[in-house]
Write a structure and sequence with these properties.
By secondary structure, this protein is an alpha+beta fold. It has three helices and 15 strands. Helix 1 (6-26) packs antiparallel against helix 2 (30-47).
Length: 231
């Protein structure tokens, strides 16, 4: 169970009890009110489920899906937030039925983060990534490639939670936050990274491979040893 949901689950439990007491007091409506309370509590508990995810064995050069859901679009655009140049953007739509725990897409170091309050357009709206409440997190992969990913609130979501901060070393598949209720996740990479998924495909956070970074090789000069892109 996602700890970010504990307060909402507790609130739903209290509401369910109040509805049950009201139903018993009102007599004829008791089954309806008790059923409504159980439905609200059950959905809240189910929404904040946090299933165990096992990433691929070797994630060094892999780009993983940061969210569960359906691939909404893959487009080319220009980024001015972190990558500062042409990028490919992949957007994942999360319905209220998807797991909403988000996971780090690649191994690397966090270099940038920003929370932006905003509007609540439907998550598939073309301007959602620019106008909606969102987080923006930039990381440098061990190959030197920059990756920007965004949690974007939808029409239902009203709360974004994320934990990575600049300087944090992170690993692909690690849990990093949650968007409460319907939302969207964008992943932006430089043009030399190709996405390996198609529009309409369903992906799982921390499990589905959505792209690959250039393979690394060790280069040694004297006592200095570092990894550089091959090719």
């Amino acid at each position: 169970m996602a700890p970010e949901g504990y307060k909402l689950i507790a609130g739903s439990a209290v509401l369910a009890l109040l509805l049950a007491f009201a139903g018993l007091a009102l007599g004829g409506l008791w089954m309806v009110l008790i059923g409504l309370g159980v439905l609200v509590l059950g959905f809240t508990v189910w929404f904040f489920r946090d299933p165990v995810r096992t990433p691929p064995t070797d994630t060094n050069n892999l780009l993983l899906a940061p969210a569960d859901g359906k691939v909404l679009e893959v487009v080319e655009e220009h980024d001015t937030l972190y990558i500062n140049g042409p990028v490919r953007r992949l957007s994942i739509f999360l319905s209220p039925l998807n797991v909403h725990v988000n996971r780090i897409p690649a191994n690397g170091t966090i270099e940038y983060d920003r929370y932006v309050p905003g509007e609540y357009l439907v998550a598939w709206h073309p301007k959602a990534s620019e106008k909606n409440e969102r987080s923006e997190i930039g990381m440098r992969h061990s190959s030197g490639t920059l990756v920007l990913f965004k949690q974007i609130a939808g029409a239902v979501a009203r709360r974004i939670v994320y934990y990575p901060k600049p300087g944090d070393d992170v690993k692909a598949g690690d849990r990093f936050g949650i968007v409460k209720f319907g939302s969207r996740m964008d992943v932006l990479v430089p043009p030399h990274i190709a996405f390996d998924v198609e529009i309409g495909q369903r992906v799982q956070a921390g499990v589905t491979v959505i792209g690959q970074f250039p393979a690394q090789r060790a280069e040694t000069t004297g006592s200095d040893s570092r990894a550089v892109p091959s090719g």
